[in-house]
UniProtKB/TrEMBL annotation:
Matching InterPro entries: Mur-like_cat_sf, Mur_ligase_C, Mur_ligase_C_dom_sf, Mur_ligase_cen, Mur_ligase_N, MurE/MurF_N, UDP-N-AcMur-Glu-dNH2Pim_ligase
UniProt organism field: Aquirufa rosea
Keyword Cytoplasm: yes
Keywords linked to the UniProt accession: ATP-binding, Cell cycle, Cell division, Cell shape, Cell wall biogenesis/degradation, Cytoplasm, Ligase, Magnesium, Nucleotide-binding, Peptidoglycan synthesis
Residues in Mur ligase C-terminal domain copies: 327-458
Protein name: UDP-N-acetylmuramoyl-L-alanyl-D-glutamate--2,6-diaminopimelate ligase
UniProt keyword Ribonucleoprotein present: no
GO cellular component: cytoplasm
GO molecular function: ATP binding; magnesium ion binding; UDP-N-acetylmuramoylalanyl-D-glutamate-2,6-diaminopimelate ligase activity
Length: 486
């Protein structure tokens, strides 16, 4: 039990009504509020949490944090008014769990693409280097070998502090986590102390949430602006916005790049189906990952390890043994020498990178067949662009559903199709059912030896349609389609 007063030591309080209370837990979802919990009313994108105050009172929760004091308050309620409930929740959660980030080497990565790949590689690399590690990612959270399912790329501030505390208690010294732009804006990482921050890249995505590209850039930059002078900040100099990220940071600045002058430099010696041969700061290394985008990911993690004091030679040795993250450029061989690649490309930039990589590594007899959809209730502007990219780089392609969520899947396909010329439509197949689309690509469109890219869902094991998550796994469907081949 903690007193409200002790929790709010570092939180600016506008008004405090009622008596001093002790709280046993924190919560921001009325459905979880109970006697002894401190409820934070948050104005969200769907509803205003303040509307649930009568409900939490009914459930016995009588200590509230609000931005607006309700007109009528029961006399046995303690109500703390703050300017920003999200910020107050983040600060209180850090206090409640004893600021675990202060005892960890916590490194965060932000950017449109490459976060999951890079944190997963960092987690594996640092384990190989002998450290006890935690991982916080889109695919899964992990404490050493133990998997804790992930619901978001970056957890809400309360779950995040609880997870970091668990990692600290289990003896982790290093934690690698993804920092999404949503997390920065919603203050999920407020009050978290980072040892280091990495920027991968920024291209079009999430304009449904941020509205403008400038606001999206500002969100990512906010992560670097909040670092302390004890932290390091590592940026990709080859990205147009790479240096902008570090403009106002107090952290020690480092850069990496393949094209421009940087603290950490790499050159691609070769890029093929067997992996990448790289020159990193004058040393040659072979990596199992494929594609120029992975050269960036590998260079970013090498740089991070060296900045964190690891032996550069040992890091290079371990780099060679690292495998791709789940659902990221995962290759699957099938009958008739057909090959499928499952990849989480769900942005125009990712899709273009993956398709260019496949073009670069295929032999001249292999056709490229792409299966692609776009998520519902997400940035609609990327839909025509992604369809056009599939058309540009593929010999044939299937437009299908990703996670339609609450949208009509046919309308999503209409918006994708709008990005195609008449000529491109000749190569198009429109099959709204994803399983049927994958089967059609593997059975009807692909000839022996061809490559089938199944993009957008990567590691996901569900498909969300009208708010219901059905079991769906691209890899499983591909295996079935391969099995059914002669
Ligand atoms: C757009 C967005 O980011 N939404 C997140 C946000 O929800 P919200 O603002 O919409 O909340 P809301 O539903 O309006 O509710 C407002 C408040 O009322 C409360 N409430 C709501 C209903 C109720 O019955 N009782 C109640 O108390 C809620 O708990 C909340 O405190 O805060 C919630 C709690 O932390 C998150 O679960 C939710 O993630 C939604 C599910 C989501 O899909 N988010 C995605 C877009 C996301 O965050 N993605 C990024 C990765 C993006 C990327 O880089 O690819 C991520 O980090 O995962
Ligand atoms: N450094 C990179 N630059 C550009 N594209 C990349 C890079 N790394 C991976 N990709 C592509 O982007 C896709 C998503 O990669 P990854 O899951 O690592 O990114 P993410 O930033 O974690 O995405 P999310 O925001 O959805 O969590 C990959 O499947 C691949 O197609
Ligand atoms: N983190 C991303 C994942 C998108 C994955 C794609 N399969 C989709 O559903 O759009 C998001 O929530 O926007
Ligand atoms: Mg991710």
């Amino acid at each position: 039990m903690l007193s409200v007063q002790s929790l709010f030591q570092s939180i600016p309080v506008i008004n405090l009504l009622g008596n001093e209370q002790s709280v046993a837990s924190l919560c921001f979802d009325s459905r979880k509020a109970k006697e002894g919990s401190l409820f934070f009313a948050i104005k969200g994108t769907q509803v205003d949490g303040h509307q649930f105050l009568p409900q939490v009172y009914e459930q016995g929760c009588k200590t509230w944090v609000v931005e607006q004091i309700p007109t009528e308050i029961p006399s046995d309620v303690t109500c703390v008014q703050v300017a920003d409930s999200n910020e107050a929740l983040a600060l209180a959660a850090a206090e409640f769990y004893g600021h675990p980030s202060k005892s960890l080497k916590l490194v965060g990565i932000t950017g449109t693409n490459g976060k999951t790949t890079s944190v997963t590689l960092l987690f594996e690399l640092f384990r190989k280097l002998g450290h006890r590690c935690g991982l916080i990612s889109t695919v899964q959270n992990k404490i050493q070998d133990r998997v804790i399912p992930a619901t978001h790329t970056t957890p809400d501030s309360l779950s995040l502090q609880e997870l970091l505390k668990e990692m600290k208690d289990e003896g982790c010294t290093h934690v690698f986590m993804e920092v999404s732009s949503h997390a920065v804006v919603q203050k999920r990482i407020f009050a978290v102390e980072f040892h280091g921050a990495i920027f991968s890249n920024i291209t079009r995505d999430h304009l449904d949430f941020h509205e403008t590209f400038d606001a999206y850039i500002a969100a990512k930059k906010g992560f670097f602006d909040a670092l302390t002078s004890k932290a390091f900040a590592l940026t990709n100099v080859d990205d147009k916005r790479g240096m902008v990220m570090l403009q106002n940071t107090k952290a020690k600045k480092y850069s990496y790049g393949l094209l421009n002058a940087a603290d950490f430099k790499a050159k691609i010696i070769s890029n093929g189906i067997a992996g990448l041969q790289l020159d990193i700061n004058g040393h040659q290394v072979h990596a199992q990952l494929i594609g120029t985008f992975n050269a960036y990911n590998l260079l970013a993690i090498y740089s991070t390890a060296v900045i964190m004091g690891e032996d550069p030679m040992e890091v290079l040795i371990q780099l060679s043994s690292l495998k791709t993250a789940p659902g990221r450029f995962e290759q699957m061989a099938g009958k008739q020498h057909k090959m499928a690649i499952v990849d989480y490309a769900h942005t125009p930039d990712a899709l273009e990178n993956v398709l260019k990589t496949i073009q670069a590594i295929r032999n001249k007899h292999q056709q490229i067949i792409t299966v692609i959809g776009c998520g519902g209730n997400r940035d609609a502007g990327k839909r025509p662009i992604m369809a056009a990219l599939a058309a540009k780089y593929s010999d044939a392609f299937v437009l299908t559903s990703d996670n339609p969520r609450k949208e009509n899947p046919e309308l999503i396909l209409d918006q994708m199709e709008a990005g195609l010329s008449q000529e491109e439509k000749a190569k198009m197949n429109r099959i709204v059912d994803r399983k049927a689309g994958i089967f059609y690509a593997i059975h009807q469109l692909a000839q022996a030896g061809d490559i089938i890219l199944v993009a957008g869902k990567g590691h996901e094991t569900y498909q969300e349609i009208q708010g219901v998550k059905y079991d769906f796994d691209d890899k499983q469907v591909i295996r079935e389609a391969f099995e059914a081949l002669n």
